[in-house]
Structures are given as C-alpha cells and as structure tokens.
Amino acid sequence: MLFNSYPFLFCFLPIALIGYQIAAHFHRRAVVIWLALASLGFYAYWKPEFLIVLGASIVFNYAMASLISRRIPNKAPTEWLLTFAIAVDLGALCFYKYLFPTLNFFARHATGHNRWEGVFLPLGISFFTFTQIAYLVDLQEGGFEQHGFADYMLFATFFPHLIAGPILHHAEIMPQFQEQRDYRLRADDLAIGFSWFIMGLFKKVLLADRFSGGADAAFAAPHSLSFAAAWAGSLGYALQLYFDFSGYSDMALGLARMFSIDFPLNFSSPYKATNVIDFWQRWHMTLTRYINMYIYNPVAVRITRWRVAHGLKSSRKAMATPIGFLALIATPTFITLFLAGVWHGAGLQFIIFGLLHAVYLSINHAWRLFRGPKNAPAMASGTLSTRSPSSYIASAGSCLLTFAAVLLAQVFFRAAGVRDAFAFLGGLLGRHSAAAVAVDPAAYHPGRGTLAMLVAGFLIVWCFPNTQQILAKFKPALEVTGADRKPALINFQWRPTAAWGLALGIVLFAAVIKMQDPSSFLYFQF
Amino acid sequence: MPNDRLYSQLTEVFRDVFDDDSIVLTPETTASDIAGWDSVAHVDLIVSIETRMKIKFKTSELGSLHNVGQLAGLIEYKLESTKQPA
What we know:
heterodimer, A: mainly alpha, 22 helices, 69% helix, globular, B: 4 helices, 0% strand
C-alpha cells in the first residue's frame, strides 16, 4: 500500500489509529499486537502471497535468535548459528534480487536476449532483512536479552518503516515499544506527526512527481540528448530522487510520530553538503549508519588491529603513507561502497555508482589527511551559512563541487545500463549532434516550465530549512544532527496555530487532488 | 570524580589520535565537537584505546556510542569485568 494513495489515507490510516486507541485502553500488549497485525495487513494489500515471505523471514530469524540466546548463558558456541542465519537471509535476498538479473546478464551475452522471466521482488525485503540481521549480530555478541515474539514482530513489520526504511536499530525502537506508559493517542503527537506527513506528501506528490516525467524521458533516450536536455534531465532526476525519498522518509517519521514513536532521521539536506563525507552523513542516513556499523567498522577495525599486532602504526602519519592509506582508508571504503552499490541493484551501473563514491570518499579522506587535522572540519559541520564573505563563497563552491560529483554518480544510478550512462554523460558534455537529436522522435525536449520547476526545486533544496528544522521546537526525531543546528538561508518554524493548520490543509487538499494516479516510490525497488 | 584517571588517560589518547593538545574531554563531548573525528579517525581511536587499556570492543558496541560519556562508561564496564576472576 502506498502512503500517497486513497486506500491508505482514507481507510487504512484511520482504522490503524482508531484500533490503536481502542487497544490502548486494554494493555500494552494489545497495542503491540494490533500494530503488528495492521502492519501485516498493510503489507498484504499489495500482494498477499508475499506475506509468506515476510512471515517466514520473521519466524526464521526469531527462531534463530531464540537458539542463539539459549546457548549464550551456557557459553556454547553460537558463531555457526549466526553465520547460518545470515547465509539464509542473504540467500533469500539474493534469490529475489540478483539471481534472475544475473542469469539474464550472462544469457544476453551468450544469446543476445533475456531467457528468464524473473521473479517479483517482495517489497521491502532488503529493509526487513537488514534490520533482522543487525538484531541477530548484536544478540550473538551478547548485548541484550531476546525480546518477546510480539515485540519482535512489531519491530520488524511496523508499517511506517517496513517498505523503504528508515532502517531501524532495535536499541532505539524496542525500548519505545516496551515502555510502561499511557499508550493512548496524544493530540500533540498527532498534530506534529500529521503535519510532518503532509510536508512529506507535498514533497512526493507536488514536487518529486513533477520531475519524474522529464527525468524518465531523458534517461529513456540517452543517445539523443541535447546539452540542455541532458542537464535538465539529470538535474530533474537529482531533485526527483531527493524529494521522493526524503518525502517518503518524512511521511514515515510523521506516521510513527502519530503513534508517539520516534524514528531516526534519514535525511538532513544532503545537497547542502560541502564534501562527500558530509554528503553520506546526510543522505539515507540510516543506511550509512548501518553499513558503517556492520561493514565498514568490522573491516577497518580488523585491518587496524592486524597492523597494530604486527608492529605497524594506525596513526594519521601511518595513513599518509601509500601502504597505510591503501590498508587503513581505501580498502575498507572500497569494500563498503562496492557492497552499497550492489545493494542498490543487479547491474554493472550500480557497481560503478558505488565505486565512484568510494573514489570520492578516498580523495576526500586524502584531502583531510594532507591538509592536517586542525583544518579538517568536525564530522557534522558544513552548511552554506558561514560568516565571512570569502568563506561563504568557499562553502558555496565546495557545495557545488560536491553536488556535481553526486550528480555524476546519479547518472549511473538511474541509467538502464552502463552504455546508456556513458551516452548520457556524452549529452552532458554536449557531444550529441543536433541532427541525431532531431531525427529521434523519443528525444527529450525540456520546456520553459521545466526550467522554472528546476529553479524552484533548487531554491527549496539550497535555501529552505528541512522538515526537522521546521519542526525543531517539537523534538521531531531521536537525534538532531550538527548540520540541522545551523539555520538555513531562509527560516521558518512550524507552530500549532490556525495559520499553519490552514496552510497544511491546503497543501493536503492539493496533494490529494493530484494523487489520483498514485506513483510508486523510487526506493521501493531496493 | 571517580573516573578522573580514566578521563585523563582518554584525553591523552584523543590528543594523540587527533594530534591536538587543546582537546579537553567531558562526558558530553561528541564527534561533532572534535575536528577530524570522522569514520576513519574513529577506527584509529577505538584501536588506540584497545591497545592502551588492553580491552577489546565488539562490533555492536562501536556504533552505539553517542558521546564520550558513553565511551568512558563502556570502558569502565570492560575494565571492571576483566578484573573479576572467572
């Protein structure tokens, strides 16, 4: 079920809220069971048969968690159980996501066409697989006691995050489900949550979906793109992707807040980032956190420990040598970003996307290393609003350079294949002849309206506050990022006033009218 | 403060890792307060603490720390549990 659809807005959500309120009169367990069942219904609405995949995944992982937690007090080995569980989880993910595309990749090379039909990807499979693997890893390391089945099922299925994140960590969510408190709906949380949801709906329906036509047309005919069409297409896609996914995340965080549950933030104005390290701290933040915790850290820590055990150094000085840089920075970065690229899809273009970012990050780290630590910015710094005019220009320049690097990688991320991506890059460099563009009936020709939309989009992206800044007075999420503490160029704050209510009411009305043909979210395919 | 010694040891490690003698740690210090504390420096920091204190961190512990106070608490806990006879 899509958040931006009539059945969700006018049927599912009201029932979920009313049922929650009724259950809250009984017991915490009733609330947990109601929300878990409602979430299963939410999932089943799309394709009931995939409820089996979701259900099997939850039962299997919970059973493995039980086996592991039973062996911990006896100090019995549990590593093999964890390895087995992760292998099964990743096996299922690979079956649905990679098997048929990979087979077809080889078939195309051998016979020139696809031989397999493929299977439908169960929505959200990578998201519910990731959250459950993290749960098992942390449990096996002995960090906590296993939770009851109902709590676990709700953690895995809670509908605001089930299909496209944010990728929750059990340590931040489980205590909220287990807290002994009054579970009835709260007027303030409902107001904040619903306002946040409408802001997300605005981004999705009134912004992202306005850019999709141009971006789709440009990427559908990458061989006949004029210079202007290529730039309009790629900039339009950058805005579509950002508004689509951050709009989805806003809706997810808003929905959770309606039930007085706080989620972690997923976006923090990523296009305002002034370097690529900063970009990844602000774009799909829960994925960055996840791969940092479960891929980058284990790899980097192992390499560093190995070096220390062999009498080698891990200091900045050591990193500044070619071997040190390769071992301590480039290797873990390339492994992590390669896997992040593969996660986004089966296809060489996703690997190139990941590796491009690995190159960017390595260059960024090298830059920090050779400029000296005192000049390096603190992790969460970097916005457009700095003091002196020269540093303002430097920040704006860094921001544009970062955005250009991101844009280049997004061409690979969006293109149907590597060839298409290179053809698109040719368009960006103005290398397609006017004659080639003229003869192709499918060629994309952006109009004046497109330019106006692009200007409006980037004005919002670069000058406006993000939704958590607009809601900052009301503690919208679990944590505030350093970047969000710095004000945007244009500032305004949400307040529970009639004026805000009216404004958001109009936005909701406009969004609902435009919603007649609900479009899916880009991140559903992952 | 009972953990004065721990904080002074930690401060030494931090000053060494970030090559900055002006660092003063408080329990509220976070990554955004210290220049250069990114994912790469974090790993160096963690392994430097491991070597200095003769402890070992787990994967799940590395990502769950939000400030120096939590880091110090975790180290104290680890030092305590290694002291007790098995």
